[in-house]
Specification:
Five copies of one chain form a homopentamer.
Chain A: H1 5-12, H2 19-29, E1 40-44, H3 47-51, H4 53-57, H5 66-75, E2 80-83, H6 85-91, E3 101-104, E4 106-107, E5 118-119, H7 123-129, E6 133-138, H8 145-161, E7 165-170, H9 185-197, E8 202-206, H10 218-221, H11 229-239, E9 246-250, H12 257-270, E10 274-276, H13 279-282, H14 286-299
Parallel strand pairs in A: 1-2, 1-10, 2-3, 3-6, 6-7, 7-8, 8-9, 9-10
Antiparallel strand pairs in A: 4-5
Helix pairs in contact in A: 9-11, 11-12, 12-14
GO molecular function (chains A, B, C, D, E): fructose-bisphosphate aldolase activity
EC number (chains A, B, C, D, E): 4.1.2.13
Organism (chains A, B, C, D, E): Paradevosia tibetensis
């Protein structure tokens, strides 16, 4: 399929990147149900590492099978599947070429007592597995945030030199941040901006609340009405180089479908580039997950039906 | 698009390759008009290097523009465009993601007096340009053939380690080979076999004649009727690991369209994996080229129309 | 011996690994009394490092001799012997080819005050010694767990690139984990899952108790009866990519033979891939050890007698 | 299977090799029908490269399929299959662990006009493919023999450092040697000795004739009766460090079964370590090949039947 | 001199080591007064680094001269001289070949506040100086013990790859160990075992006391009478791969000659491989030192007189 106009405009925001990196971004944006719309739907499966297997998969035990997770991304015709090296390696061969892959190259577990992540994969792994992108989590605000930034920069630089795209999961956390600050509007926007400044092509943040956490930032946010999620999403997009970086938003833990779809509408209206839907997809049954993802895809403007001709 | 059955069967022949390499092969086989058919149509543009620019492009001066050549591959919805690093680099950025690319990593010119090629690009170039594959010419029979084999093996090993596919243009030439031996059936089959043994995933050879050049091989070919091109193509496929390697055939210099299409029919019936059409496409006008490529695609079983929905 | 069907099915779970790595896994699964059953019995001898020589070998002083330990693995026709570089190096030459070897490449001693291990061997050591696999301990939950994960990933990546298999001893320990949490069901399953995500082909965990240690995981385990060991083993297998990774269970300190064999029955019924039996074999006399290992092998379905024809 | 006495004695000849190299030699000597006898039967398939595909496979077209060749080695329960990287790579994954592999790492074609070989594979390839050994051809006497010796030494040193075994195909050829000199007794013995001095663990030579080619060597051979092949084989064994190196002999082009078996009897009586049987096996039908290999195995003392229990 | 039977038996314990490493061990075991006895007497001079020059040499100011120390080892016909790179470098040239050298490659000073050592020399230094072995100190139990183990493993691996032998000074220290624990029997045996597992060919420990320091080890030592030093030495030898590793014992600070010789008798009866005598030799006058070393050599069975024929 020829590159669509919406995708071409997004790619123009990446002038100066090597052609390979742009081609990888194009491969994500031109794949699946949302191909050509300029929107992305990504299935991330690192919750087994982050929260443990039973908390992630016991609700829908089929999801213990890596192949189930791949197949879900393929059946729902999502833009990409993201996961740690062991998970991608378990099916990348058998299902080579069926769905774009994003290698989640650092990981944390819930047994840890500090906010940090282990670097668990390399750009070489991503190339061998045929991934379109490599991704890293950063914890802006955490005691070890700068070490994380440095690890991530190393990875992004090597990824770009090899024609891959780079994604950052930007999760403010730790240090002086209270739990409710982690999704405060100023903090989420700040995290998205740091990710852009670190060179991410794709940025993943949580949906921001109305809260403004940094005292020094209060003035900057004063006098505007932040009550609508759409407005807050639009502000995060501003922080991501005025929308020149690709920003996707997450839904968090299993939630009501209507509520989720409302959020997606706000993301779309606010100019966000899409959704990353993990637990809300693989913790539902296969049919319920497809129904939800169908509805989300519809909001993002999918032209074609999920079922392939 | 989900991997089709014909493509899945081809990929099964590449058991043991890294997932990235398989995914790259899939990306060629699932792109363009022939997507999913298990056939390939490749536009190669290294004739400027090999024969000089005027001999290559004067007939259709638009083809002096690299972008014309890219656009031809895009408009005709071909499986891939192959060319030297300078040519690919001239447009890979602007047209990133529009057509799979194959980096022709060694090149020769017609000013040379020995049969050899210069290595003019690296796997790193291919990664930066977002190529699906890297390709090399070998001249079995030439005085420097073994140096060429060694250069090619280095390149293929590095390509595979980085999740790329590898293509070999296998052109018997030089040494004791007379000009008419270069397309002799035994020699073409031998060249395809050497390419497979050197680890090529995709092999390009010329269409073989009925001639048997090696005295010692006469017995092995005796008692069979090699008059039909289809039978000769089928024999070349045998030599390519019983058809487990992807073999595409070239048309050579500008030729009559009817004759060319007849050849394509023979390739298809003989089990070949497709055509590489250079001068016969870019030396025609854009419209004539598209008409020819349309007809070839039809023979290879393209289901959909060239014009995208 | 031709690869048996159970082994072939296990190898299919490793699609995408290099042929050398698969061949090494096959060499473990096709060796000794359990050859072809899809089960493994491994003799690990790193207790001298971990607990000190007298605590490990004083009960059966013959075991101070490295050759005794090799010979025990050979006589009992076990699947493999695992140990640190000095131990394997002491006999690998004289007994080359008699029993598959797994190089335990990091080690800790009981004089240490923090939960960590020293990297004491390299992939190059493993190649020189002719090992089938290289193995590492991780301590999920420990303060230094992420450094350990990174060391292990480096080792696994290099092992795979050289056609070796990789094993992880996954021992949750340290940080906020109480001693009894280390064998809690949720924690053991979590550790096995992390090992799989880090790319281990073979995972070693302790047998899990009924305890659920993580507060946040209680819900995921509620409403199911975890009283039988078999059910708990089956849950750990789920966490190891739905049984696609090879998981072996340990017996711990010297125990009663009947109790041990009961545990083995539960491992077998729960779908575990076998046992790693250290102190329970080499702290018994040679005859008692062989008798115990015979009985365990019988449970796992060894078809042939220990004594070779 | 425990290492047998005959194999143990052979391994003692390799004192000072790394354990991994010895274990790889043991894996060849303890595999298949001849396991434990101290004899080897190897299927080499590089004739496609050396002579061309039709001359090699047209007589038995099934042999164009790499998998046929693997399966022949597996069905006949041979000690190993040897071939170029492309051939081994075509099936090493699917058939991982079924038969030991020897990577033929240099290759020549019959289009060449000088006596040389291209280095077409690396030790890294051998490790990835799970090979037991890497092998090279040398042409003692050829104009480029010293370059070949240097390439081979590089490869052998790297192989040994990585725990692999090394094999040399020692074919005197070129320079001042007449065609009939290539199999002269003094020349074959000389070639075997050079291979041993270059560090080969396994040496492949052609069966020697009674001819003495070097004038200066006439005296050394005078006064002994070389009429029996057995005596000549025994002399070649002398030249291979008094039999401390493993020497296998080839049969050459397709020959009469009775004649071949007579030769095998002479090899066995002369103390040779076995046969390398290429064209005489894969140019026969599958059944005829198995029958021939059965008979050869019987001469070498195979205790068990080919059909596995 | 031909390798004696006792030395041959020791070398057999190093099966699998490269020939160069074995030859270096042989050069130590076949040099000086104890040549061929299977025993070693080593003069270590790193006390200047460890304790300061005056504390080391003021008692016998001649010992400030490096050449004095070399000459002492030469005159006493000791097995080897061990020291830091600067000390060996001061005389290795003039006295090349007079006495085997062991390069002490890490060092600590008494100004330090943590238990660690600096790596102060390389395998390359050892090769340039013509050393037979390279040596390292480890502090099992110290907070930085694992970093030390990793440094030592790197060094040993490189030493072996270059045909050198490796020695470990195993000194439990730091962490939870009380000063009197450092020579407790269980701890010394543990330290010797760790050194063996790390691949040391020669291990140096202090003479153990009757104390058992680790609570968990009490049972393993219960019910045996450890009162005689000989029995304790014999236990340490057990811990060193049942005596397959070379273990030498130190005398510590300047002591009474009779007491020292009694200790040596216990070492000899317990199966130890000899003594390392530093301060007790160079802090005595030259004549007294020679007299003491004569007596020790006599106990170890030196057949010949010190004065060379």
């Amino acid at each position: 399929m020829a590159i669509s106009e919406p995708v071409r405009r997004i790619l123009e925001g990446f002038d100066g990147e090597r052609p390979g990196t742009k081609a990888k971004l194009a491969s994500l944006l031109m794949h699946g149900r949302l191909a050509g719309t300029g929107k992305l739907m990504i299935l991330p499966v690192d919750q087994g590492f982050e929260h443990g297997p039973a908390r992630s998969f016991a609700m829908n035990p089929a999801a213990y099978h890596p192949q189930y997770l791949f197949q879900l991304a393929i059946d729902a015709r999502l833009s990409a599947l993201a996961g740690p090296v062991g998970l991608l390696g378990a099916c990348a061969d058998r299902l080579a070429g069926e769905v774009p892959l994003i290698l989640k190259a650092n990981s944390a577990d819930s047994l840890a007592q500090e906010h940090d992540q282990a670097v668990t994969a390399t750009v070489r792994d991503a190339l061998e597995l045929g991934c379109a992108a490599i991704g890293y989590t950063i914890y802006p605000g955490a005691d070890r945030q700068y070490e994380m930034f440095e690890e991530v920069r190393d990875g992004i630089a090597e990824a770009r030199a090899n024609g891959l795209a780079a994604m950052i999961w930007a999760y403010p956390r730790g240090g002086a941040l209270a739990h409710e600050d982690e999704t405060a509007l100023d903090i989420v926007a700040y995290a998205a901006h740091i990710a852009a400044l670190l060179g991410a092509h794709i940025i993943k943040v949580k949906l921001p609340t109305e809260r403004i956490a940094q005292h020094e930032a209060q003035d900057a946010y004063a006098g505007r009405n932040w009550r609508s999620l759409e407005t807050r999403v639009a502000h995060v997009m501003q922080a991501a180089f005025a929308g020149k970086r690709i920003v996707v938003f997450s839904g968090g833990p299993l939630a009501d479908q209507r509520e989720l779809v409302e959020q997606v509408r706000a993301i779309a209206r606010g100019g966000g580039h899409g959704s990353i839907v993990g637990r809300n997809s693989f913790q539902r049954t296969h049919d319920e997950a497809l129904a939800l993802l169908d509805e989300i895809a519809g909001v993002y403007g999918a032209a074609e039906k999920r079922v392939q001709a």
